[in-house]
């Protein structure tokens, strides 16, 4: 019974090797009969169409099913496959949240660059509308509202209102400060360059404070990840000592009970630890 998973893995590896070898031989024959060392035009065209389609459809969360399938083969049970299928949407949501966070940080950095570029253009002698136009084109900080803001800047529209609308997107909150500086400069005659300079300094200080806070909680996140890996380490240690923990967990009533209770405690513990760390990350 213990040798069956190993035999299955060896057979799967041999099958994959045979398939790859056959594909290499077929490609070599095509190159030989196409008359040179370069791929045939139809093959290159098909490759160029296939790679972007795969990249567009591939989602990292589907790797949960691959790992669950391997564990299901080793354990001889369908439960890991069910757990992997349930984990796919959860992992996908977490990955999408991380991508939104990175996009928010990139947008905030672009807003800081926009403020610095506007101040530099104003000191170089450009008018405010021209300075905003060239700075926005070079930094891309206005996102989907760029056309509306630049049209207002070039044709005498309501620039502060357009900037406030652009500031509603995640990471672009600093544009509301730029709108306030613009409004004060237009209504009160104050220097726009000085106000934008102070705004840029404030945004940079906020960014640096956020980076310092993330550096401080990085150790806590590492601890959470280590706690998540402890059950896997325990299973590996049991296997190294000659036991068969997967058979006990998936094929005995006591093991199934321990698996259910342990999985529930593991999920609750990770959720609680992540909530504590995220609360510490909040500004």
Topology summary:
Layout: H1 3-33, H2 41-57, H3 63-75, H4 79-123, H5 128-139, H6 146-154, H7 159-166, H8 174-188, H9 192-240, H10 245-251, H11 253-281
Helix pairs in contact: 3-4, 4-5, 4-9, 5-6, 6-7, 7-8, 8-9, 9-11, 10-11
Protein name: Type II secretion system F family protein
Organism: Streptomyces lavendulocolor
Main location: membrane
Describe this structure in words.
The chain is mostly helical and 283 residues long. Helices cover 83% and strands 0% of the residues. The protein has 11 helices and no strands. It has helices at residues 3-33, 41-57, 63-75, 79-123, 128-139, 146-154, 159-166, 174-188, 192-240, 245-251, 253-281. Residues 1-7 and 34-44 have low confidence and may be disordered.
Query: How are helices and strands ordered from N to C?
Result: HHHHHHHHHHH
What general outline do the C-alpha atoms trace?
A: elongated
Largest sheet: none
Radius of gyration: 29 Å
Low-confidence stretches: 1-7, 34-44
Chain-averaged pLDDT? 77
Structural class: mainly alpha
Distance between the first and last residues' Cα: 55 Å
Query: Strand portion, in percent?
Result: under 5%
Helix count from the secondary structure assignment: 11
The helix content, as a percent range, equals over 70%
Give the tally of β-strands.
Answer: 0
Subunit arrangement of the protein? single chain
């Amino acid at each position: 019974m213990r040798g069956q998973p190993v035999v299955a893995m060896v057979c799967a590896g041999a099958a994959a090797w045979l398939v790859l070898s056959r594909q290499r031989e077929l490609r070599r024959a095509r190159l030989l009969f196409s008359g040179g060392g370069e791929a045939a035009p139809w093959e290159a065209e098909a490759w160029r169409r296939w790679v972007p389609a795969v990249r567009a459809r591939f989602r990292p969360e589907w790797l949960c099913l691959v790992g669950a399938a391997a564990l299901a083969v080793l354990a001889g049970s369908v439960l890991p496959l069910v757990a992997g299928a349930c984990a796919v949407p959860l992992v996908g949501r977490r990955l999408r949240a991380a991508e939104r966070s990175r996009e928010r940080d990139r947008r905030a950095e672009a807003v800081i660059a926009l403020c610095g570029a506007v101040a530099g253009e104003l000191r170089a002698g450009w008018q405010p509308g021209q300075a905003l136009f060239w700075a926005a084109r070079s930094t891309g900080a206005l996102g989907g509202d760029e056309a509306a803001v630049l049209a207002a800047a070039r044709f005498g529209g309501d620039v502060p209102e357009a900037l406030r609308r652009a500031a509603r997107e995640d990471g672009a909150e600093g544009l509301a400060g730029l709108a306030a500086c613009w409004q004060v400069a237009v209504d009160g005659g104050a220097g726009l360059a000085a106000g934008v300079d102070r705004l840029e300094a404030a945004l940079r200080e906020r960014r640096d404070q956020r980076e310092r806070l993330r550096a401080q909680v990085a150790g806590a996140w590492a601890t959470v990840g280590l706690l998540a890996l402890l059950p896997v380490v325990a299973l590996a240690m049991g296997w190294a000592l000659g036991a068969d923990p997967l058979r006990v967990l998936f094929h005995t009533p006591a093991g199934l009970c321990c698996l259910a209770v342990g999985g529930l405690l593991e999920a609750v513990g990770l959720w609680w630890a992540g909530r504590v760390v995220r609360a510490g990350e909040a500004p």
